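Worked example

This section walks through a single chain of length 196. The input is the sequence exactly as stored; nothing has been trimmed or padded.
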Amino acid sequence: MYDSFKISCRFEAMQKTDLSKFDNSWYKPGNAVKRFLWMITSSVFFAGGWCLLSFPKVWLLRMFGAKVGKGVVIKPRVLIKYPWMLSIGNHVWIGERVWIENHTDTVIGDNCCLSQGAMLLCGNHDYKKSSFDLIIGKIILEEGVWIGAHAVVCPGVTCRSHAVLSVNSVATSHMEAYCVYQGNPAQKVRERKMGQ
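Given that input, the structure is written out below as tokens.
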């Protein structure tokens, strides 16, 4: 009883989260009109399941400032936060329900595959501060990277050439080239050996 009282008193004395202090006024992701127009466009052409063709989505991404290569496949129900901070290489596959939450620059290299439900998460919150400040970090997927179904790449992570992040895994640190990562947090489990 006394121990639980001591623990309770210790927690009472600690700093607490105060979301009323949250202030991300420093963060400027683009003007309000552009963000509003993208929100409408994304809702109609990307988030909905009716637009099955990739070329209108590629065209729209380019119109909103994304750099998009040739041969890109974008499945239905894909969410992209800010296309003007997105660069996609040639022959990239973006699977159904992929979420690219790119609060800052995000680079997807040639021949990358993002399987269904994968998430590129460029934003997070600083849990060490009572104001729960926004933290952003650039994500880079180099050539030939495969992000498995429902896997998550966290802010500031670079996935080197031909790295693989397995299903449901979470990359919290850089991934080496030609290596397979698995788990939460993802750990290197083997090399990626490729044949013809």
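What to look for: The chain has a mean pLDDT of 93.
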